[in-house]
């Protein structure tokens, strides 16, 4: 590590997924010296990159649970943050479809559950209206509930925006840095052992996702939980399938799982999934023939024509489930430690609510929070004294991220932008219409990609129908030759 990297910090946040980056960006609003450390080479490469990408309202959460509260709050915060930061979000709404009389009988209780969670916009939909709205739905649907605010979101831009904002506000991002232990400390400091050398800090926040129980045990194991990974496999269908549905199509959930859904993506594809299977290996991200088969069977029932469409890709993500039904979030004042573990199925939507809650717990545990004074926008922290209840969790100005959604205007569609800079008219990835200008910008961004996967998550290059068959060589050449910030404007040879 460099001298700057090993400088003792007020707070080290372990884990740069959507939860850790949200916490880092919230703490960055205060006069604190923070480090955000992750074992991986980029932010958002754990569960945060491989999920169903729905911005949940929390209508179906268990009323009174911490998850219900933070999900509702986080989803509101993320909606407005996304609009300001250019994170792609589409308010498609969801239809929760009952296929049997028993499922139909369960709908009023689900609507009541939503109201108990403070969500009142849910409404019953009769079969005739359901088929008028979703003509490609398979036969046999009996009734539905409409949840008009369920939305789809870009899971890649979200942690990237949080991390970009945190780093711009002075948070030190240490990638490729796995925390392996903590030495006993009696002097008011923690000494963390990492794969890149020791780190000293006053406070530690555990946002380590699938590794959160391991970190928690290093700090006394006060959370009393063990991560039991639950794998979810998903199938991505080609963009030609997108007109088959306009809303997210949800099943009636069971006690164990929310079940298999069909949803549009902000990139213009259709997702089918996820499965729910307990696995023992925390790195088991493989898809299985049985899992994909079961998804296709479910898809055949929900939208029969979907399974005739071409499959673009499949992937799996691991939920950090535990033996407990709720999030495992607490602070230990004596150990100067906070834990945000067990963030299973809703962490993307709840991230900003979780961050707000964790910061308030840290404050109650004794971490002094003084709003950071900036030269540009005055004071970070819009709500004045940062008391727990008055803290809005939103401060400063979010960064403006490169827009990679399908619903807005992309650079290749923007004549003014192309006239000002021809690189935005030079397409490199034809499936996804990614231009040389966007690849150049990603390479020169405050958080440049560490590899081609990172470039894909920032631009969509190689994410389309051909999965890089035609453009991978050109994209790789650009990645390798960019010298990061020095990519020439329009001079690199790319396939046309
Ligand atoms: C199939 C599936 C579908 C889902 N669908 C949705 C959805 O539609 N909407 C929604 O809101 N949520 C959804 N989720 C849940 C959501 O993806 C997660 O709750 C969220 O991504 C968790 O974020 P995280 O930051 O806690 O974990 P992660 O993203 O896993 O980040 C944890 C980070 O900690 C790092 N780390 C671990 N151990 C260490 C260590 N010792 N030292 C340093 N770094 C370490 C890891 O490298 C990782 O980057 C879904 C999840 C799955 C699996």
Description:
By secondary structure, this protein is α+β, with helices and mostly antiparallel strands. The chain has 3 domains: 1-89 and 153-227 and 324-408, FAD/NAD(P)-binding domain (3-Layer(bba) Sandwich); 94-148 and 229-319, D-Amino Acid Oxidase, subunit A, domain 2 (D-Amino Acid Oxidase, Chain A, domain 2, 2-Layer Sandwich), CATH 3.30.9.10; 411-486. Helices cover 28% and strands 21% of the residues. The protein has 13 helices and 24 strands. Strands 1, 2, 9, 10, 11, 12, 19 and 20 form an 8-stranded mixed beta sheet that branches. Strands 13, 15, 16, 17 and 18 form a 5-stranded antiparallel beta sheet that branches. The model is unreliable at 375-394 and 484-496 (pLDDT under 50). Bound molecules: flavin-adenine dinucleotide.
